[in-house]
C-alpha cells in the first residue's frame, strides 16, 4: 500500500507541539490512553482503541527521536495483523507556528 501522508499546521510554537507528543501527560490529553510511555529510542508503549464494540490493542516502539525534528516508531496490531508499519512525525517551525508531516508506511489496509 502507498504511504499515508498528512501535513497539518498548528498555531503554536514548536516546543509546545513537540511537548504534546513527547510528554506522557500532554499526550494523554489528546491521544489514546497510552500505557508506560517512556519517550526513548528502543522503548515500547501500548494502547487500546475502542471501535465497533471492539477493543483493538496497539504496540509501538520508538526507533528514532531527534528532538524538535522527528519522532519515528514501529506500529503493530498483534491481534489483527502479522506485520508492523512505521509512523514518522516531522516537525518544522514557522515563526510562532509549527507544521507536522505524518507519514505512515507499511500499512496492510
Explain what this protein looks like in three dimensions:
With 109 residues, the chain is mainly β. Helices cover 13% and strands 50% of the residues. It has helices at 14-22, 24-28; strands spanning 4-10, 44-51, 54-66, 70-76, 84-94, 97-105. Strands 1-6-5-4-3-2 form a 6-stranded antiparallel beta sheet. A hairpin with a 2-residue loop joins strand 5 (84-94) and strand 6.
Quick recap:
With 109 residues, this protein is mostly beta strands. It has helices at residues 14-22, 24-28, and strands at 4-10, 44-51, 54-66, 70-76, 84-94, 97-105.
SSE layout:
Elements (H helix, E strand, L loop, with lengths): L3 E7 L3 H9 L1 H5 L15 E8 L2 E13 L3 E7 L7 E11 L2 E9 L4
Keywords:
109 residues, mainly beta, Alpha-D-Glucose-1,6-Bisphosphate, Chain A, domain 4, six-stranded antiparallel β-sheet, 2 helices, globular
Q: How much is the average pLDDT?
A: 92
Shape: globular
Question: Structural class of the helices, strands and pairings?
Answer: mainly beta
Reading off the top of the CATH hierarchy, the class is best stated as Alpha Beta
What percentage of the residues does DSSP assign to strands (E)? Answer: over 45%
Describe the sheet with the most strands.
6 strands, antiparallel
CA-atom Rg in angstroms: 14 Å
DSSP strand count: 6
Our measurement of the CA-to-CA distance between the termini, rounded to an integer number of angstroms, reads 7 Å
CATH architecture: 2-Layer Sandwich
Number of structurally distinct domains = 1
Give the CATH topology: Alpha-D-Glucose-1,6-Bisphosphate, Chain A, domain 4
Note poorly predicted spans: none
- Largest beta sheet: strand ordering: 1-6-5-4-3-2
Q: What level of helicity do the residues show?
A: 10-25%
Helical stretch tally: 2
Order of helices and strands: EHHEEEEE
CATH superfamily: START domain
Amino acid at each position: 500500500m502507498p504511504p499515508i501522508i498528512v501535513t497539518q499546521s498548528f498555531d503554536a510554537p514548536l516546543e509546545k507541539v513537540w511537548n504534546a507528543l513527547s510528554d506522557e501527560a500532554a499526550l494523554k490529553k489528546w491521544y489514546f490512553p497510552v500505557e508506560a510511555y517512556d519517550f526513548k529510542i528502543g522503548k515500547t508503549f501500548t494502547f487500546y482503541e475502542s471501535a465497533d464494540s471492539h477493543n483493538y490493542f496497539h504496540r509501538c516502539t520508538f526507533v528514532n527521536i531527534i528532538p524538535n525534528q522527528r519522532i519515528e516508531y514501529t506500529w503493530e496490531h498483534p491481534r489483527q495483523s502479522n506485520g508492523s508499519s512505521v509512523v514518522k512525525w516531522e516537525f518544522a517551525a514557522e515563526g510562532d507556528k509549527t507544521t507536522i508531516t505524518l507519514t505512515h508506511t507499511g500499512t496492510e489496509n
